[in-house]
Every structure is written in structure tokens, then in C-alpha cells.
Amino acid sequence: MCGPRDYNVFSKWPARSFRLDTPGLNDFGKEVKKKNGRYEILLQWKTKGIKENLGNNFNVAEKRFISLEKRFNQDELLFEGYNSVMKEQLNQGIIQKCSENHFTGYCMPHREVFRENSPNKSTTVVYDASSKQGNHLSLNECLISGENLNPILIDVILKFRKYKIGFCGNIARAFLQIQVSEIDRNYLSFLYYDNCDRTKSVTMYHLIRHSFVVTCSPFVFAATTKTHNNDYKFKYPEAYEMLNESLYVGDLFFGSSTVKEAFKLSSRAVLILKKAVINMRKFDTNSEVKKFVEKF
């Protein structure tokens, strides 16, 4: 069902390894890698042997996909919106076709969610990592949620309000900016049409980025961004401190007393995150800094 896949493209860029020894991140443990600028992190398992209690969930995922197919056949607009999301994720390298002939891992069902507040009610595809088969555990039951590494929200708000010039930004699809290590990708599998073509057979895909539906993803994102930010502690100390203390999940809120300082902080924050292939967007401010940072 799954054809061979060529991973030689990654050989162009050497893997860079990091030890997560930043204070407060010791339990993140183990070695993480950076490929083509993007961090690649393992799933955070509760114990080494817990995978033995994780069912492959294939039968549940297959039944739910068959049900989804029936709805596609009844609603062409539903299929078009859904398939558009899948094509985009395939083209952006968020998902990829399985490269193995024999499936071992965990298969996630998936469904659509409509954004009612969106002008065109755009479709979001949501994976179900809490689904389970029989007496087996679900994927989320096998993973730790990890330590809450986010700053206290009220502290972020109070810092933001004390400055004459405030600015904020949002990281686009924050959790999806962190890649899943190859050895764990089988546990983020799902069924869909080969090459997103409904006339072709159904095949197995992997979600190769961390997703908000997976229990450990908030911790993985926070730990990874803090680890990356730590590389700039001495080069850009003010920007380092700002990102460390005022980046709440994927949202940054901070400020400055002058336009010059606001530009320096915000532009350096954008630069630091870009070095991890993380895109800060929706930048806004109550000053003219916005038009300069947007071009950065």
C-alpha cells in the first residue's frame, strides 16, 4: 500500500545536535536534532515500554475514514475544502506518504472542523490522538504532558501594559513548526487518498510535525523555543529575555519606551525565530514600527 520514499534531500544539510541543559528543561532530556534549520523532536513517552500497550488503532481509523468517504460522496464542497487542506499540508511537508510496506505504529482518525468566524468558513482537519481500540491505550494516554514552561499570563499582560509603545505578534501554526523525529512518525499515521487524488487508492500517511491534538506538543514547543532562544542569550540579551518571559504559547506581547528600542527588540525576535524556521506573523503595534518590521 505504501511505496518507497527518498530521504536523500536531507543529506544536503548536516544534522546539528543539541543537549537540552537549560535550567528548567532537564526533563526534556535526550538529544534533539536540527535538520535544514528546523528542530526535530521525539514524542515524549511516559515510559520506555508503554508502546507495547498502544494498539495500532487501524480498524477504528479505517471505519471512520469509510464514514468520512460517505460524507464526501454526499457533499462535494466538503471534499473540496478537506482535500485542499490535505494538499497544502502535503506540499508544505507537514504530512508525507508512508515509506514502509508493513504498518507498525498508531493510526489516527481525522475529521473536519469549520471555522465559523472565518469569512469563508474555512476547513480545518483535526486528527484524533485520543482514539483507541478495545482495551489498548490511545496515543495520548502513552505520552506525558510535561512541565508548563509558559510564563504566567498575568505577568505577560502587566509587562505589556507598562510600556508607552506596545507590540505583539503570533507564530503561524506554532506546534507545526517543530518536526517529529523519524523513529516516532509511525505513531502519527493516518489514512487518506494517494497523492490526495480521490480516484486513487487509500494509503497511509504520516503527520511529521507536532500537532496541538497530541498531549506533549505544548511542552515540546515551549521547550524547543526556549532551547533555541538560549543560543542568543549573550548575542541579543534583551530579545532573549523578552522571548523567554513574554512568549506565551505562540503569542508574543511586549513593549518599549521608544520607537527605536521597539524596532530593535521586535526585529531581533523575528530574526531569532527565523533561525529555527519559525515565522512570526500578524505583527501589530501602536506605533510606526509595524511598517518596518513587516519588511524585515
Textual characterization of the structure:
The structure is a single chain. The chain has 296 residues and is α+β, with helices and mostly antiparallel strands. 29% of the residues lie in helices and 20% in strands. The protein contains 7 helices and 13 strands. It has helices spanning 58-74, 76-91, 153-161, 217-230, 237-246, 259-274, 289-293; strands spanning 16-19, 31-35, 38-41, 95-97, 110-114, 123-127, 165-171, 179-180, 189-193, 202-207, 247-248, 251-256, 280-285. Strands 1-2-3-8 form a 4-stranded mixed beta sheet, with no helix packed on it. The chain has a 4-stranded antiparallel beta sheet with strand order 11-12-7-13. A 3-stranded antiparallel beta sheet has the order 4-10-9. A hairpin with an 8-residue loop joins strand 9 (189-193) and strand 10. Helix 1 packs across helix 2 (76-91). It is globular and about 60 Å long. Mean pLDDT is 85; it is low at 1-24.
Please name the defining characteristics of this protein:
296 residues; alpha+beta; 4-stranded mixed beta sheet; 4-stranded antiparallel beta sheet; DNA/RNA_pol_sf; Integrase catalytic domain-containing protein
